[in-house]
Amino acid sequence: MKTLLKVATLVVAVSPPALSLAAEPIEFWSNWPAAGELAAVNALVELANQVDADHPVTAKVVPGDFAGYRQQLQIATLGGTPPPAYIFNVGLELRDAVQSGRVRPLTAAWTALNGDEVFSAGLRSLVTFDGVPYAIPVATNVISDIWYNKKLFAELGLTPPTTWEEFGEVCDKLAAAGKECLANGKGPYWSFYTFYPSIIATMGVEGYLGLASGEVAFDSPQFSAALDHFRDNVAAHFMSNWTGGDWVNGADAVVAADVGMDLMGSWFMNYAAAKGAVPGEDIGYFPAPGMADKAIIQIDGLLSGNGLSQDVEAAADAFLEVAGSPAGQAALNVAKGALPANSLTSPDAFSANSLHAQMVKDLLDPAKTTIPNLSLLLPAAFSQDFGTAIERFAAQPTSEVKAMIIESLEAERQQLVADGKFNDWTE
């Protein structure tokens, strides 16, 4: 694995660290209400409570999209009651939170975990600023794989496509059988994620990173070509009612064999399993066309709010140490269907599910180039605006809408460049 993100080869597991007593319990916030995600929250909390039964961790799951979750975090922080531990974005939004003083350094937990050794250089670059760690990476998900209903494919004599031309042919055959091709869901991120392979297909990794750094203009021919590719090869094949439901509705349709495929994160596996699909038998995955030697990755980090009492800080550090430990990473990621960030996590933890074990193996392939989720590398508000623009174009892929979003995104890019809001992630 190479380039921006590299997860080191997994080796033996070690026991979770012993925790010191704290005066108060802590609350762990997340926006993971879906079946596999909620199981991951519960598994991590259960482990933490086993380690420190005198000071239990309680889980607060905030339903809805990430924008609503972010708003709840802001309300709590402004109200003087920031959560002691919470799931949040790493990358540029974390940098902004650090600069505003909303989060505290996690040096104690990082040092206890030996973070400089167990987390890869790429991960460290997204969670440390000026050499200080502000987040503990806890889960990695590949978001450039396509999940599919294996039984439906077998019934129709279909094989996973490796090119966009083959992808279109598979969609045509699904349509001929009365099935829809590609799932999607409303919201600023799901269409955005499905746009990434089109960026890579037309602009390459360099162009992708150029968008992340603000160096590539949105009124450039390259970006126009990426939109055209997305319109013709991806959005044209979305299920008909995708604007009326979230990603889980699309996943449900794939499990039910009403839709053939879903370009979705690794968490799809455990969600589908919770709905009765057997991983490896009923569902499988393959890289999006052109992504066989690449993987676009979502990274989840655990942060801690600033302004906590000394006792709460100590309890939060203890929980973060459990979450970052091999035992904590295994507990969370086995349940979530995600991949561990701590390189000491044993691969044996995933052996009960051969498909999950294959996901780990695929990601750790030395030839694999891994690339962070573009959304993590952009200013938060701009990331949402970008995603909303792509969602609008997916729903209305007309030349008028295309011109409108290009003009809007380019104006916003120029202002952000002038304000120094971007970051060069290739350094």
From TrEMBL:
Key words, A-Z: Periplasm, Signal, Transport
Keyword Methyltransferase: no
Protein name as catalogued: ABC transporter substrate-binding protein
Native source species: Devosia yakushimensis
UniProt family annotation: Belongs to the bacterial solute-binding protein 1 family.
Domain of life: Bacteria
InterPro entries: Bact_solute-bd_prot1 (IPR050490), SBP (IPR006059)
Signal peptide: 1-22
PANTHER family referenced in this protein's UniProt entry, alphabetically: ARABINOSE-BINDING PROTEIN-RELATED, OSMOPROTECTIVE COMPOUNDS-BINDING PROTEIN GGTB
Keyword Transport annotated: yes
Localization (cell): Periplasm
One Pfam family linked to the record: SBP_bac_1
